Amino acid sequence: METGSETIAQLAARLGREFAAGAQQADETDSFVAANYAALKDAGLVEAAVPAELGGRGAEIGELCDMIRLIAHGCSSTALAFSMHTHQVAIPAWRWRHQKLAVVEPLLRRVATERIVLLSSGGSDWIGGSGKAEKVEGGYRITARKVFTSGAAAGDILMTGAVLEGETPPKVLHFGVPMKAPEVSVADTWRTLGMRGTGSNDVVVDGLFIPDAGVALARNAGEWHPLFQIIATIAFPLIYAAYLGVAESARDIAVEMAGRKPANPHAISLAGRMDTSLRAAQLAHRHMIATVEENAPSAETVNETMIGRALVAEHAIKAVELALELAGGAGFYRAAGLERRFRDVQGARFHPLQQGPQAAYAGSMALGLPVDKVF
User: Fold this and answer.
1) Which end of the chain is flanked by fewer CB atoms within 10 Å, N or C?
2) Average per-residue pLDDT in the chain?
């Protein structure tokens, strides 16, 4: 696909419109949006977050969020799955720019030149870690089942970790898993309420050898590490850009459908409440981006990011609920696209930090209490 002089936002908007045609079929058949990933590669968006000096497009966090959000207007699943690759590139790109970390350069160059797709196993690899790492000669033997691995079928490297046995306190080792290794398989488990086209299947790792040199980090399990402060601060504006895009597209559909009928006070009120909720989500998301742009990840930026994440989730979900009500009975039909967006936006509830831990983190920060083990 020729990119020409299109900006990243223009590319994303155009692709989003193209992806819309197949979004319903992917939803109805639980099919991974593989063709859309091919289009994203052809458009050069796989390397959007790679610094320009390393062969990428050098996009900053705000541009990347717009990319994900605009893709979501057409296909929620593509946007959410692609946000997982995008944040796995944006994090080492940030470390290259701001920490001058040379070790990330080979990976970033591979993304730019080979257009490899990075996977994240999301919540299953959160602060507590998951999976088992057994120390063997020259490295570690890994056994794990990584759930919620969005885009698993299209991935080249799974950025993941495992808990090292026999250590006190328990340690989590971080490394990349080559998806083509014979010890790695994808289990077809993704049958869900929404975001059905993300292909977020389980990845099973059965006895994979990771050499000592392949371990990028060892950290204490169950405690916030500075790297996870970077991850949380940068990743979640990208992930929640997908849900914001879902809410924006639901709003537009509802306004178009409501415009076919004479206005009445009830519809006018619903439209006003819907736009108010959507604006709240948009403003909260802008705050998340502004937090990244401080370029100083810390316990405080995690708090601000997670407050933003909670507000985007709450108000995006509310905006879509109101959109469905504004559209009326016609919106209940699957062909309208609203009920799919209603289901897709529910996924905003389930990423870390979920409602309870987020409130505990924010409350602990407010009262000057430790947050190093709040997750």
Assistant:
1) N
2) 97
pLDDT digits (tens, 9 = 90+) for 179-229: 999 999 999 999 999 999 999 999 999 999 999 999 999 999 999 999 999
Residue 3: pLDDT over 70: no
Cβ neighbours around 214 below 10 Å, total: 15
Q: What is the pLDDT of residue 4?
A: 58
The answer to whether residues 345 and 320 touch, using CB atoms and an 8 Å cutoff, is yes
In whole angstroms, how far apart are CA 326 and each of 76, 105, 184, 249, 282?
21, 50, 47, 14, 20
Residue 165 has a pLDDT of 82
Is domain 226-366 in CATH 1.20.140.10, yes or no?
yes
Classify the C-alpha dihedral 321-326-328-333 as positive or negative.
negative
Would you kindly state where each structural domain of the chain is located, as residue ranges? Answer: 8-116, 122-220, 226-366
Indicate the pTM of the whole model: 0.97
Q: How crowded is the C-beta side of 95, counted as CA atoms within 13 Å?
A: 19
**CATH architecture under which domain 122-220 falls:** Beta Barrel (2.40)
Angle between helices 61-74 and 226-258 (to 10 degrees): 40
Instruction: Record the tokens describing residue 268, joined without a space.
Output: 């006018």
